[in-house]
Amino acid sequence: MKIQHAAFSAAVVLALSSAAEGYLRSGGRRQKNQKNQIPKNQKEQNRRQNNRGLVLTQEDMENNNNGVSYENHDMNYAPLSCNNDIDAASCDSTTFSSLVASSSSTPGSSAVVVPCGTCVTVDIVDGSKIELPRGLEVLGKLHFPSSSNVVLNTTHVFVQGILSMDEPSEGNEVRINFYGTDHQCLLPAMMCGGEGTGMELDEDCIHKHEVGKKAFVVAGGKLDIQAIDPSCPSWTKLHDVADNTQPSALLFDGTFEDRDVGDVPWTTLVTTLWGDLDIDLEVVDAVESHDDGDGNIIVNDNNKALSQSNRLNDYTGLTVKVDRSKLVNTYGMDYKLSFRYKISYDDGGDSSSSPFSPDVSSYLLLRSTGSVTNGPTRYGNDNEYIFHCDGDGTDAEGRAEASDVWTTCYADVHLKNDHSYETAVPNVRFHLGYKKEVDIVWDDISFHRAGYSSSSSIVVSSEFGSCVREGDDILVTSHVPMGWDKEIVSAVSSVQIDHDAGTATLIIAPGVPEGIPTLTSLDPVERVFAVEVARLSRRVIFEADQELYMNMTTGQMVDEDAYHGGHLMMMHTPDVVQRLSGVEIRGFGQHGFLGRYPIHIHMSGDVSGTVISKNVIRHSNQRCINIHGSNNVLVSDNVAHDSFGHCMALEDGAEVGNVFERNLVARTKVHKVEMLVSMHTGGLSTTFENNGTSEVSGPSSFWITNTLNNFTGNVAAGSQVHGFWFDTKQFVRGPSYHVPGNDRVEPETQGLIAFKDNAAHSNGRKGITMYQPGWLPENGAALENVASYKNHHGIFFHRNRNIVVRNSIFADNKVSVRHFVNRYMWNTLEDSIIMAKSNDAKSREGNDVGCFGGGDSSSSSVTGVQFAYNDAPGTQLRLHNVTFGNFDPDSISCPGGVLALSPWETQGQGPVGEPMEIMPTLKDIAFSPPAVDNSFDIPCSILDGDGREDIFLEDVDGGMGPTGNPGFFLQDAPSMKTFVDPSACHDVRREGSCADYCDGVCLRKLFVSARPIEDIEGGGGGVVDYEMVITNGLASQTFEKGAASKHPDRFDAVLPAGNYRIKFVSTASGEPVHPAVDSVTFGEEPRCSGYITEKSIMLPLKVYQRSALC
């Protein structure tokens, strides 16, 4: 049947036949054929299991009774031949408004169609709203010139031709809003009859493709959207915070000869509304304010006042009033009231006395909104506050020493929870009582949330500032450790460019926190810590109505924050260059649905030349920019703020040659659902590990599933879990696995194109993660110039090998580097800096850092490098030319070890029987300032009851020890120190630590494996318990089997240089016994000289005769 091209409602695909569901449950194959698909080996079985439920076979598609096409990964779309000469066609002969009018007058359910071979210009310039209830389908070319100023409301946009946009002119805007809940079907013109006329498509075409609701889909077509000046950067570093222009002062005359103040007549008091007097009375920055729906926080500036009480009494007062406006949830918060004043005593008053008197209280008054004067109020002793005054002209007690000089005062105020009323929001008033005969000039009166201001003047580069317009939204990233949700979104009210200085000053509200790190406030080495400032506004906006995500089985709402918006997908279109630049995408993505993202390049193979740049993604319900089965895309200078799940993502692990450069991501959030739904199979749910994405509980700002890509200059500025996640699997997953050749790709062993100049900060858990199952580059890989700061973990190595991190900086993390259970071939950190606390943080916080919960030094302290000590030889971390900074008590109140053991292997999780002596290798380690007492931490608490006595660390050049001489850190345990000269050892233990340092000793690990001895005399068929005794002629020490290594048939000992005799004795009787000894081996050779060797150990003759050593 032929129909006029129309959108097809395909909600039916969500109710597939039971037969189709059976295909999916059986891995996309008919169950009757399962016997023919038994894997030949375990590896092939693993490959198949890794990709179950993600693709339908051709047989499935041919037997699909719904007539809807799901993923057929051999089917691609191409440009339509009827558009071969489209660039030569005139775009002025047909206008978009005429197409819309024609569609509106056509009976039936027609979409607005741009015919193939035809170029159409959008001619709407007055901001009109155009309703497209049946969608917009571009088969030819649709061009939005800079004069376009229009809002399109539509159910979908399909592009099989060309959609191009120029940057709208100043004052113009192009908005495309998507709405509706019907799932749409794309009828591919090249397969469904539209190639010739470009209009008439076959509804019964077997190639129609379900693409979901609120869909913006490119299939065989091309986007050419260049809607921004290419010289405009999307973000920059904060250069400085400037002082706002100080307001004029206000004089209250004690004689009241002039009863008009600010042109307001005097009655019983002087009242001046905000704005009439130029007083810097700032609005309260409450926890919540009014949200206008676009993410803009609106705080009214009305109804704030200054009141001067009459002077009939001995004391008068100034009342500062802040009305509620839109202020809510202020209780329990800390605020600051501050002001300046200067006084004069024209009537002969004592200039050495304070204008404030202890007889007159200054208090906070909370009045229920809407109450009468005598209504419910709370004030008095529990609301009184104390002024702290300093500055010119004051003494230690805050008294003015001379008249006509400025004094600055402030009071810290806490709005207690018991100040609240059940149903009312308070007015806030401060009463400042002072002597009536005093004339006071008030200035800079401010009441604001502690640490914040209602507005700020921020300084940025002129290159960035020149692209900012009044009314734009600005993102200022978090500077708070682990503060993934502490960013600020502000509106710009003024832009001033200083071309000579190369800077721009933006006035924004709400303002930035006091002391926020800027380029000018930081030391040169720490300038990377300056917060980022991004412009969130664009003149081309794609947005979508939001609907709550309903569980398809129960019909219940999943979560109040789980929404479905629109999605943009360029699918199955290889060898076509796409350009998407300068678009603001709001509320796209569909929560919990894989395949429904704000920007999604899907299964398109090689798309060299494609550019996704300078876009803004805001409030995404599912991911941000997703590259799936597509290669050689440039993703550059984009900003993403407030998203669920992985943000910048490589989906299957087959994607290569892509470049992610200079992208900024902030506020990456954990999903509200426990299981993601795969849309690769027509909307059915799959239960295999959320398709291997791991993002439900562990989202990342940058999800790296294949390292043959380039990541340069990106910033992960606040993820709830991971910043950058190297999630390289053994096999390619998802539909990409079925692309020829991908079944032989092993992402976990791939090399690296580039990872340099990237930063991760303020992430809830890990700045950089290499885990699950681990990255194992065969030929090595280097991460260069990394900055990871203010995270829980700076970088996390687990099951990795052959990775170098160089020229990097880690600071203000709980644990800067965590390294354990890695593979053969060393990982290395070189030419880098690790700081317990940055100089920036010290300047703002002193050393009073909040220690971490846990109650022991391993989990509560700040640690430089945390490592496992039972990794296999060759797997530990190498530290070369690394400087550790500010680990001293003067810098941080709860320093842990510069190097510290991880408690992981002492909790029953470590590999049983592996050697215990493997420690990091250290070369050219420096400390600034010296870290005498905590350069190596052996937390006592993690060893309690464990029985291990075998921990030591060599200090080759003496750079870590307290004396500056080479030696060893070692565990304070009897078996470790029996043969060590006590005079050589120094107590470097801080509270909770079990480490000593011994000069000049040379330690090495000894392993003795011995067989069980049958208890012949006991007659019970048991074994004799026995111990190993080592002596050097001067001292002896007993060692229990398995005590240190947990190996049931092995004795471990740590011995200094010397000659030793070994014997074995019964645990019960102390009599000698002679077990068969299978091996006597040693740990890795230390770098000191004189360590023990085979020649140092003597065993009893009977042991030799019974053992395998002879």
Salient structural properties:
7 domains; 10 helices; G8 domain-containing protein; globular; 17-stranded parallel sheet; 25-stranded parallel sheet; Pectin_lyas_fold; 36% strand; Fibrocystin; 1110 residues; Thrombin, subunit H; single chain; signal; mainly beta; cell membrane; disordered N terminus
Task: Please explain how this structure is put together.
The chain is mainly beta and 1110 residues long. It has 7 domains: 17-62, no CATH class; 81-226, no CATH class; 235-242 and 455-535, Thrombin, subunit H, CATH 2.40.10; 250-449, Jelly Rolls (Sandwich); 564-725 and 733-757, no CATH class; 776-967 and 975-1001; 1004-1106. The chain contains 10 helices and 85 strands. The strands form 14 sheets. It has a 25-stranded parallel beta sheet that branches. The N and C termini lie far apart (90 Å). The N terminus is likely disordered. It comes from Odontella aurita. It is found in: Cell membrane. Keywords: Cell membrane, Glycoprotein, Membrane, Signal. Residues 564-768 form the CEMIP beta-helix domain. Residues 109-238 form the G8 domain.
